[in-house]
Amino acid sequence: MAPKKKFAKETITEAAFEIAKTEGLEGITIRKVAEKLGSSIAPIYVNFKDVDELIREVVKWIFRLTEEMLIEVSSGRPFYDIGVASLKFAKEYKVLFRDLIMRNNEYLKDYDDHTGQFLINEMKKDPMLDGFNDKELKEILFKMRVYQTGLSVMVANGLLPVEYSEEKLIKSLESTARDVITSMRYFKVKGSE
């Protein structure tokens, strides 16, 4: 009898991620992952109790990927970088973007716990956002996420007019961010009067 192949948890997660990139999270099955690895299903069950646990690990992988994309963009303006990284993710991982953003799924509930505070901490490093407390930064982030998500949906679904280059999209994000920040500063001052 030939010895059974052993796979590290990370190798299995990466194989599942590769499936999710083209088929979405629902496309991940233990059998498909085993096929991708050229293995039986046994090594997967050694590392994961079920497919749901594997999918949750893939979602964590995606969160780390988005954080890496944010670091890659690193212009020195964290708030700007968040928007650019989001557009990049929507463009490069259309299926996953649609899966995570456009479908009601239980996996995104972990997003705010994991990534939300990370983004707020990044925003605190941005001089453009000096003077805002955590609650105000969350409000700014929410408003920008609404705009950026709409823009990213258009990117992921090929709905943008032809004349909208990546440069034009980024300028649109910058302009909207300035508008949101300016209005938040205005109401912050107005509210303290």
Automatic annotation (TrEMBL):
The keyword DNA-binding applies. GO terms for molecular function: DNA binding. Residues 29-48 bind DNA. It comes from the Bacteria. The keyword Calcium does not apply. Residues 6-66 form the HTH tetR-type domain. Keywords: DNA-binding. PROSITE patterns: HTH_TETR_2. This is TetR family transcriptional regulator. It comes from Serpentinicella alkaliphila.
